[in-house]
Each structure stands twice: as C-alpha cells, then as structure tokens.
Amino acid sequence: MQRLLGSILEACARHRGVVLLVYAMLALLAVRSARQVPLDAIPDLSDPQVIVFTEWRGRSPTLVEDQVTYPISSALLAAPQVQAVRGYSMFGMSFVYVLFAEDVDVYWARSRVQEYMSGIQSRLPEAVTPTLGPDATGIGWIYEYALVDRSGKHDLAELRSIQDFSLRYALESVPGVAQVASVGGFEKQYQVQLDPDRLRAYGLTVAEIGDVIRRGNAEVGGRVLELGGREAFIRGRGYLRGEADLGDLVVRTNPDGTPLRIADIGTVRLGPEIRRGLAELDGQGEAVGAIVIARYDTDVLDVIDRVKARLEALDAGLPEGVEVVPTYDRSALIHRSVATLQHALIEEGIVVALVIILFLLHLRSALLPILSLPLAVLLAFIPMAWFGIPATIMSLGGIAIAVGATVDAEIVMIEACHKALESAPANLSSKERRRRLGAAAREVTPAIFFSLLIIAVAFIPVFGLEGQAGRLFKPLAYTKTFVMLSAALLSVTFAPALRDLLIRGKIRSEVDHPISRLIRAVYE
Predict the structure, then answer these.
(1) How far from each other are the two terminal CA atoms of the chain, in whole angstroms?
(2) Distance from CA of residue 481 to its chain's centroid?
(3) Which helix (H) or strand (E) holds 141?
(4) φ, ψ dihedrals at 324, nearest 5°
(5) Angle separating helix axes 16-36 and 367-379, nearest 10 degrees
(6) CA-CA to 7 of 20 to 30 Å: which in 107, 363, 473, 518?
C-alpha cells in the first residue's frame, strides 16, 4: 500500500498541471452542488407520518371517538410499514396520526393511507369526510405573519376575509408551500336565527329548515333548446348571493297559497363563526395572522424567499392602511447557522497560517493549508448533494469538527518538508530539491493518509443509530466523514502538486529559529 501511495505522490508531483486542472473542475462542481444542497437551521427529527383530520361539527368527544377516531385507527393499523397509530378526539374534530417505518417515503405512505381511507368511508357517519393533513413534517413551520390595519377602518372580520380569500390562495400557489393556516379574527358566515315559537306554530323542525337551505342553494341543469341553428343551454340558477336571497327561500306554501319564507320564521344576518381561540400581536390587541407550512423535503430558505417575494408583490393590492407584519422568519436562523461555518473556516485558516508563519517563518508554506482546507470542505458538498443531506446545524457542525482534524495533517507534512530542506546547500538544484521533498512526503504522507481514514471511519457506530437519535447525529457523521475522506484524498494528490510550487526559498533551520531558541532557553 505504501508503494502505491508513493507512486501516486510522484505522479501527482510530476503532472501537477493536470492535477490542479482536475481540482479546479471539481471545485466548480462543488460550488454548484453547494447551491443545490437544501438549507435549514435544524434537522428534521420527526417520524414519517400521515395525519388524518376529520370534522364532525357539534358532536361530543365521546361520540367522535366511537364513530370516527376508532374506526379509522383500527383500519389503518393494518396498513403496510405502519409502526404506530395515535388517535385524538375532541369536540367536533378527530385527529389520527399514522407513524411509518424509518425509511418509508412520505408520499408512498400518503398513498397507502388514501387507499385504506377509501374502504373506511362506508363505516363512517353520513356527511363525515376525512382529509389528509399537509405533506409536511414537524419542522414545516417556517414563516408567520400578521395582517394589521393601522388606519382602523377594517375590523377583524374584514381582515380575516382578506387573509382567507386573497393572501392564502396566493401563498399556497408558491412552490414548496404545503399549507397556509389562518389564525385569529372572525370567519364570516350566513346565520339564520329561528324563532322557536314560530317553528312550533307552523309545525316545522330545524332539520327541515336545513334541508330547505341546502336545496335552495343549488343550481340545476336541463337540456338544450335549438334557436336559429344554435343550441341554448337551459339551467336553473339558484345560488344564494346575499342575506335577502337566503331570507326569501320558500319553506312551504300555506293552504291559501301564501308562501312561507325563512324570513317569516327567523332572521338572517352575517355573523362570525364560533371561535376556539384568538391571536394577539405585541400586546396591542387581537390580530389576524397566518402560518406558512413548507412542503416535505424542500429547500426551506428558497421557500421563505419566494414567500417574501409573493407577499411583497401582494402588498400593493391590499386595502389602504392594511399591511403584512412578519412575526416569525426562520431564514435569520438559517443564515446564522451558515455564518457559523464560514467564521469557523476563516478562523481556522488564519490560525493555521499564523502558526506556520510563526514557527516556520515561511509565508508561502502557509498557502498550502489555506488552499487545502476550504477545498476539502467544498468537496464535501458533492456527496451531500448526491445523498440529499441538508445543510443544518448538525451537518455544518460535522464539517467544523472535521476541519480541526485536517489541520494537523497539513502542519505535519509541511514541517517534514522543511526538515528535509533546512540542511540543504544554497546551490541546491531543482531536481535534488524535488527528490528531497518527495522523500519527505513518502515518509509522512502514508501515515497522514491512514490517520485521516481512521478518523473518518471512527463515526461508523453513529450510522447504526435509529429513530430520532439517528436522524439527529447521522448528518453530523456523514459530513465529518466526507470532509475527512476529501482531506485524505487531497493529502496524496493536491498537496504533492502544490508542494514543489510553494515550499521554496530560504528554509530556516530549527536550531536558528528564534522561537526555538527562546523555548530551549526557558526549558534549560
């Protein structure tokens, strides 16, 4: 193995132009891969899951549990790759969380749940339709904003209507957005307040009035009528357009032919939906807001940028005095996470350069680790993009950890090359200088190469972790391994190609070095 590494060292030193060209192309590929790596602040620790939501208005939690949650949960237990099914029942609502095995694709899981739900529908109460939750994970909450009226001309109901019928649809069409959930305000609805005495007098029930309203808000179609060689479609337009139309719906006709309308037995008005909570902004009162949920396996930073751009475009169409106020933005945390890596690389490069300059008193030698370290980090983004590993706090932390280990290898090799040249005569020929540098490299580079490999494989037990522990620490182990492998490759290819170009000029002897003399004097 040492003979093979020696041959590689000599070949790379001899054909350094080809080696530098190859690494220049790899650097361009790495830059492109780094742009394709999804950016996020925190790793996704949630299990592959599908949420089934069912609404059954006005029913008690016990009834919802018996007739909705239990049938859905018991049926989904038989779905393939299902690890657990958790059901939650509350007033008028049911949530069923279906957790799948570790490596199951989320969209495959959603299709399996949809197949089983089609067979459950007949066992559920009439007019109960379960729906699947958004294709997002537990960390999909990426952006939040509030809709504020500074002028005071618009109430909470109007702001909620602007959010629900304008902003929400525009933002849900943004690529990468799974859902925009509205919060706060009042949802407008048509409300019919019936008079119990009049109902009793006419012998009517609330269920009959509900049937009349459902039948009255519909449109029916007929055949076609030929007029002058053209076909005219016949239809009955019955959609309600306001409170007056709803009040004019005929419940029945009295024996004397007088129609009995809804307005005769109650009042119709616009009112708010029953609220189960509210939203408040900065302690200044209630506000209308929304939560933007990112789709599974998307670049969160790109999605946030697109959402901001869409909100900026929609700002001109908002009513006067209404503005969008961001209340949560994860992009700031993502940028700080990336900046942490950048600062670590810059600081490590500066420290290594200062150490080499200080102890070797050779400026050009410091360029070798300054160039090698960023290149080793950059090359690690190629397998990250290939395997789809996002850049998070944990994955970037693995890169920062690996940078510290690669520094030692560069210093050892440079010091060995200086040791081989410090006793050389002043008129040393280029051939003899390359021979001495090659001998020094063959002496220490195999040890450096294998030490880097040993450090790289030291995290192999981490790859055996499962569940949340695996999802938390595997990205760190992957990126650390990638950097160590790229550093090991650079030590036997890139370093020999730059060694002859950079390690030149006057090389001081260790005995003549002022810092060495000072340390020796202190020691003695």
Answers:
(1) 43
(2) 23
(3) strand 141-149
(4) -100, 125
(5) 50
(6) 363
Closest residue by Cα to residue 329 from 353, 300, 354: 300
Token pair recorded at residue 454 = 């040993």
Report the residue count for the chain: 524
- Which amino acid type is present at position 225? L
CA-based nearest residue to 216, from 190, 240, 243 = 240
Q: Which helix (H) or strand (E) holds 198?
A: helix 196-202
Cα separation, 155 vs 238, whole angstroms: 31
Spatial separation of the C-alpha atoms in residues 509 and 360, rounded to whole Å: 9
Which residue carries 């089934």 as its tokens?
52
**H helix runs in 252-392, sequence order:** 262-265, 300-314, 331-360, 367-379, 381-387
Residue-wise pLDDT for 238-248, tens only, equals 788 888 888 88
Q: Are 400 and 344 in contact (CB under 8 A)?
A: yes
Over the stretch 37-58, which tens digit does the pLDDT of each residue have? 888 877 888 888 999 999 988 8
The span from the CA of 389 to the CA of 340, in Å, is 18
pLDDT at 411 over 90: no
Instruction: Give yes or no for a contact between 414 and 373, defined as CB atoms under 8 angstroms apart.
Output: no
CB 279 within 8 A of CB 288: yes
Window from 114-118, 263-267, 293-297, 396-400 with minimum mean pLDDT: 396-400
The answer to whether 102 and 66 are in contact (CB under 8 A) is no
Query: Residue 52 pairs with which residues in a beta bridge?
Result: 96, 132
Task: Tell which residue, 95, 97, 102, 130, has the closest CA to residue 114.
Answer: 130
Distance of CA 336 to the CA centre of its chain: 16
DSSP 171: H
- Residue located via tokens 């059954």: 56
Q: Amino acid identity of 461?
A: P
SS3 433: helix
506-521 pLDDT, tens digit each: 666 666 677 777 888 8
Question: pLDDT tens digit string along 153-207?
Answer: 888 888 898 888 889 999 999 999 999 998 988 888 888 999 898 888 888 888 8
